[in-house]
Amino acid sequence: MAIKFGTCSWNYDSWVGLVYSEPQMRAVDYLTEYAKTYDSVEVDSWFYKLPTRREVEDYAAAVPREFTFTCKAPRDISLTHFRNDQESKNPAFLSVALYKQFLENLAPIAGQLGAVILEFEYLNKKKMPNREAFMEQLQVFIDEAPKEIPLAIECRNGSWLDKTWFVFLNGADAAPVLSEKQFLPPIANLASSYKEALGQTVVVRLLGGDRLAIEKQTQKRWNEIVDPKPQLPRIAAMLRELAASKTDSLGTANPGADFGEMNSNPSLGDAWNTVKKDEIYEWLHRFCRYNTFEISIPALRDPDAAPSGKTGVIISALFSFELTRRIREARWYEEFKRRVEEEFIDVISSSIYPGLKDKLLFSFSFSPVSIYERVGSSEGSIVGWSFEEEIPVVTSMFRMADSVKTALPDVYAAGKWVYSPAGGPTAVMTGRIAAKRCLKR
Predict the structure, then answer these.
(1) Which residue(s) pair with 152 in the sheet?
(2) Could you tell me if 13 and 47 are in contact, meaning their C-beta atoms sit under 8 angstroms apart?
(3) Confidence (pTM)
(4) Model confidence over 248-260: pLDDT tens digits?
(5) Does some domain include residue 259?
(6) Domain boundaries, position 73
(7) How many domains does the chain fold into?
(8) Are residues 321 and 374 located together in one domain of the fold?
(9) Contacts 24+ apart (CB under 8 A), 29-35
């Protein structure tokens, strides 16, 4: 059906000359000119405070009647705990009375509201034991809340966003919010997988990094694409498909939004400052569940590589150097490494090696940062030989024993780079092969 496009905010002096003719003192004073370019806007500021009726009247007077507002409800309604005191529960969480007061203050723009968004942060088990408990509390709120204004729900627990979630929202007559945001599933994938359960209205939000950092990178130029994102064509196709269906879409984007998926090697940039530890752990859980692993068992090749009746297992996966470096700078690196070990072991233990975690004597790990500091390879890379020219070391797995030989008699080489593909297992095995050669001499 209809698609409304707008931005997540609009009061930027750097838009003067592009969207606005001159700077203004108040955000609302920009809206009249803004409405000549866009037919919708998301009001983010009301998430932080309850607006007065007079403030809302000014917003209504600044735009034509056909203009659409999407706004976030005050965070007092959607936060389970106080931001500055995570130990204390928020007594106003999902307060219908506060929500009604909010809607009363929005009365001057009631006929122009596309949706009111309840934005929930990532909910760890301390804040919410599970999705079922969250849905139960949310259902009570939706049942008791006024129905005149469409209600949209933004959930930032990525693993909860499946068919059950979208069917629940549809049945509760609440709109889903699809947010293209780091550590959440790509929204094009969600729309494709669950399009039958999306309902009449969908709010699409394209969220990026720090605007000031982006303005520094672009020299405050907003009329050219500096860093195109590969997923945008898929998002555009998704919106076209929604437009061709019965669904009304409200699309908003952060100015300069990064639109980045969290893959195995993300470019975090200034988005790091907005990411919570819980969100990273939520992403890590999904990353490990859907990733591929390389598993090496040196004792299968050389029984002497482990004590009798025991073995060693090397589990490897590609991982982000930048993310690991940021976590180390934030001083929770050791905690994160232990969490990665647990996730890796859980995946292998629940799949190809049942019961592995119950048989472990000990475990340890190396991250890209560990490898970088030990051997100096670029960003902790483990496969460092270029395939552009002939590789100057042994590359056949059947000739690994020859990789330790050098041009000098009785001198052997061992380590990460004496065999290709290079890596930790290579260092272990070539070190053992070289040591055994020396012992035989």
Answers:
(1) 117, 175
(2) no
(3) 0.61
(4) 666 666 654 433 3
(5) no
(6) 3-253
(7) 2
(8) yes
(9) 29/62, 31/59, 31/62, 31/63, 32/62, 32/63, 34/10, 35/62, 35/63, 35/64, 35/67
